[in-house]
Amino acid sequence: MTADLRTQVVIIGAGPAGMLLSHLLAADGVESIVLETRSQDYVASRIRAGILEQSTVDLLRSCGLGERLEREGDRHRGIYLQWPHERHHIDFVDLTGRSVWVYGQTEVQKDLIDARTAAGQQIHYEVAETNLHDIESVHPAVTFTDVDGRRRTVRADVVAGCDGSFGPSRDQVPQHASHRWERVYPYSWFGILADVAPSTDELIYAWHGDGFALHSMRSATVSRFYLQVPNGTESKDWSDERIWEALATRLGHGQDGWELTTAPITDKTVLPMRSFVQTPMRHGRLFLAGDAAHIVPPTGAKGLNLAVADVALLAPALVDLVHKDDDRLADSYSDTALRRVWRCTHFSWWMTTMLHHGQDPFDEQLQLSQLRWVTASKAGATGLAENYAGLPIGF
Ligand code: APR
Ligand code: PHB
Question: Do 224 and 216 meet the contact criterion of CB atoms below 8 Å apart?
């Protein structure tokens, strides 16, 4: 196969994982080419979760991506956990000395695109038919059709599979050499975006007999909400009126004088919930990072944070591999990354199963007991705070 492009690392996917990887590699003098099936506009505008944990913010700041985050991000001390007639604040700063930031992951993506574009990063958008070759050799390749319909081949030292949950990379790891772990949940999230000032200073996670609800936010004038809905729900089944009614009931409008302000809804999307891990996260010269290797349900907002943590480990490993032919960090990448992946997989599963309403009255009593313990006991609250605000990278 004759290659018309040559680089050190070919990165499949221009999501947060792929773009941050190209940024960190460039800072250490490693060249990369990024391939992306979607258009730049699409990637820069898709709606994503809105919480950055402490170590994500620390990393973005340390690599020169913290400027707008500093100006526009909103630092939160903690979250509210509630169930009917009770609302409790969990203060992460008091409990762990760490906090979280409300800064849309869409904004992180835009900052990454701006930084990489300004640096002259080679990014091929709107590519098709991406195929991986020779990943068990030291010179793997990726073929693709570019935006002008030309068939191209890029030869590299390493392929980074940052292509999310539907990309081709993870399937390249032979079945006999990998394992897939999965949990599907019997409910989905219905995400709602509204042009309204948040009715709360920090996020509210609400358990309710009708189903879970979350009050989040994007800015002083934009709020984000989620409702637990049955699998198979379609946005058109829910009028704006029905949405506001459900949010008011589940979030406790009228209780202790708290009020939910309503306004025009600008977006409605149903999101499936899934936990998924593929192990190991490396095969030969293919390294997986972010959603390509693992998916968490959104309760706890770990998706992007976990992708950032992967890349923080992967970048120095690839720098050593490519520059010094030193494969020690590359060899330990998967095991090290998976320790955090499983911690976050457990935390996301735990938050999800504690807060979502099911069919079983026994489960309901366990959930309420767990919520009481987490909010009343310093040990319980600290466990939640430590996981939510995020353990240090390398934990
Ligand atoms: N060729 C090139 N690019 C591809 C291909 C392919 N065959 N298949 C998928 N992609 C692209 C997708 O279009 C997407 O832009 O890979 C990118 C993967 O990006 P994300 O889905 O954002 O995944 P990741 O970068 O791992 O981000 C992790 O960030 O915002 C959060 O919730 C999000 O959990 C996710 C997290
Ligand atoms: C969001 O703001 O989109 C968000 C916040 C917290 C979550 C999930 C999503 O747990």
Answer: yes
